[in-house]
Amino acid sequence: MHRKRTLNTMEEIFSDLLAEPSNQFQGFVRMSAADFELLLSRVGPLIEKQKTKFRETIPAKIRLAVTLRYLATGDSYRSLHYLFKMSHQVISNIVKECCAALIYVLKDMIKLPENENEWLQKESEFKDTFPHCLGAIDGKHVAMVSQIHSGSEYFNYKRSFSIVLMALVDRNFCFMFCDVGNKGRISDGGVFRDSVLFEKLQTNSLHLPQPKPLSDDDVNVPYVFVADNAFPLHPNIMKPFPGEHSEGSTQRNFNRKLSSVRIVVENAFGVMSARFRVLKKPITLQPNKASKVVMACALLHNFLRKSCNSRSIYSPSGYIDTIVNGEIINSGT
Questions:
Q1: Are 293 and 285 in contact (CB under 8 A)?
Q2: Are the CB atoms for 297 and 140 separated by under 8 Å?
Q3: Is residue 169 within 8 Å of residue 268, measured between CB atoms?
Q4: Beta-bridge partner residues of 168
């Protein structure tokens, strides 16, 4: 089967997908053909291999497609080898190299605002629901297989093995900051304290806007990131009142408002996991390689959310919870 693989047979896969009138290609790689070509033009020089007289090299287009298909389905390398007619060892190397290339060319897709005006732009998107909110923080456990001789280092409270993705998300469900690779046994608060984001927050190097009154009041209120109870209370971190509170109480109303803002980070994780289903299954890689897979998914998430051609393919209308007049409208997905 591998010996019969030629450049023509590999090209036939793309020809058949592109010829389908039902947009099968978009479902195959989770993006439009135009964005696939754009991505290929950027990563191609990094993943292209030199031809030899012994065998034709696997084209960069096929290498990228293999990687995107792995991220989209989470299928094992042995399963993918029947589709692409290449050994699982070759697929393993291709995925590793392509993920590294994607991280390099898309690294600017995830970045923190650099000045006060950019932070205020983020705040304006939340203003109708939660004034002075700059974004939502949360952590996600990405399941992985138990590592040899790792003991309980990656064993989390869900009784599975994982690495942690810590993220800050804006109102458009895009990541502004991602930290990947902490061991699953560490709590969200512990992961946050070890992150670059917390260090910048402690050293006042995020260039956040200065506290201002919420209305005509003369009390200055800081700008905040919203989080759940796992995170530490901080002048720039707002979390819910702990415990149970009666219906109609100030604390319960505050918690409801805060939760309506926090859905952006939950939705971002949900959409990314639904579209890149490698995050739905235990990743059978070493932690450092699994971290690159997760980071590649996060960067692709932002790339596709910001794309005019692929946004409706990646997260169509009704796919994400929305906030209307301060109320959460569930997507139903």
A1: yes
A2: no
A3: yes
A4: 137, 177
Note every long-range contact of 202-209, with CB atoms under 8 Å and residues 24 or more positions apart, other chains counting. 206/112, 206/119, 207/113, 207/114, 207/115, 207/116, 207/119, 208/116, 208/119, 208/134, 208/236, 209/116, 209/119, 209/120, 209/123
Task: Work out the percent of the chain whose per-residue pLDDT is above 90.
Answer: 56
d(CA 220, CA 52) in angstroms, rounded, equals 68
CA distances (Å), 206 to each of 98, 124, 223, 224, in order?
32, 18, 12, 12
Q: What is the pLDDT of the chain when averaged over all its residues?
A: 88
139 contacts 165 by C-beta, under 8 angstroms: yes
Token readout for 45 is: 């020089």
Q: State how far the Cα of 296 lies from the Cα of 283, in Å rounded to an integer.
A: 14
User: Where do the H-state alpha helices sit in the chain?
Assistant: 7-19, 24-29, 33-47, 60-73, 77-84, 88-105, 116-126, 188-193, 196-202, 250-275, 287-305, 311-314
Q: Are 226 and 259 in contact (CB under 8 A)?
A: no
Instruction: Using a cut of 0.85, tell me whether the model's pTM lies above it.
Output: yes
Report pLDDT for 16: 73
Confidence of residue 238 (pLDDT cuts 50, 70, 90): very high
- Give the C-alpha separation, 233 to 119, whole Å: 21
Contact 95, 288 (CB under 8 A): no
Name the strand (E) or helix (H) holding 322. Answer: strand 322-324
166 burial type by CB count under 10 A (0-12 exposed, 13-18 middle, 19+ buried): buried
Instruction: Please check whether residue 299 is in contact with residue 98, taking contact to mean a CB–CB distance below 8 angstroms.
Output: no
**Positions of E strands within 160-239:** 162-169, 175-183, 224-226, 237-238
Q: CA 164, CA 155: separation in Å to the nearest integer?
A: 11
CA–CA dist 52, 230 (Å, integer): 55
| 290 pLDDT higher than 90 | yes
Cα–Cα distance measured from residue 260 to residue 253, given in angstroms and rounded to the nearest whole number: 11
pLDDT digits 0-9 by tens, 175-219 = 999 999 999 999 888 999 999 999 999 999 999 999 998 877 778
pLDDT band at 119 (very low <50, low <70, confident <90, very high): very high
